[in-house]
TrEMBL record:
It comes from Nonomuraea africana. This is Nitroreductase. CDD domains: iodotyrosine_dehalogenase. InterPro entries: Nitroreductase (IPR029479), Nitroreductase-like (IPR000415), Nitroreductase/BluB (IPR050627). Keywords: Flavoprotein, FMN, Oxidoreductase. The keyword Plastid does not apply.
Amino acid sequence: MEHTNPFVPYAPDRYDEAEMIRRGREFFEHVDRRRSVRFFSDEAVPRECVELAVMAANTAPSGAHQQPWKFVLIGDAETKRRIRVAAEEEERQNYEGGRLTPEWRTALAPLETTSDKGYLEVVPWIVVCFAEKYGLRPDGARVKHYYVNESVGIACGLFITALHTMGLSTLTHTPNPMAFLSEICSRPGNERPYILFPVGYAAPDAEVPDLTRKPLDEALVHF
Ligand code: IYR
């Protein structure tokens, strides 16, 4: 085909049908073992593991290939403490100050979450994902970004899956509101805090709510 821009051949791996299904099932069973974790070990995790997870996230498809994400990696105790203090302050207003609606409380009850976010100081790493609402050219001009939420959401999904593949755990924590993360992480105004990820090993005695996933016939409609 004739192009006006550079194109290269692309030939993704192919498998026979039995192998396709075997691989699909193996991947499903792998991701089906993932759970969000709120009880972490303080055991050190190599920085390279988190870098690899961000490299995986960075492969996500994005609107107009604008890759509108930025991952901030925090490993120092003082910054983790500042994030915990600020997150708990906001969450106290949610849980104890009545900012959560009764409907929201009911929805959250099975998770038994509270305003205590002690895990933010236990984990070896905190990763904060920021979404670039718009780009900035070197001269300061704004570049419109497309499908920012979709793009960053997919990147975060890959990030979570990569951590799980390495035997690490995380939690999609969205302290509400989370503007304090822009200040603590010194991020510019075009970046909006998107999700905060505590990253580490699950504590040996970690527990998770006994939840089940909805069956395929509720997730998939054959039209
Ligand atoms: N941000 C709060 C509340 C919370 C909200 C949802 I939706 C959850 O799935 C879990 C918690 C908190 O972090 O506790």
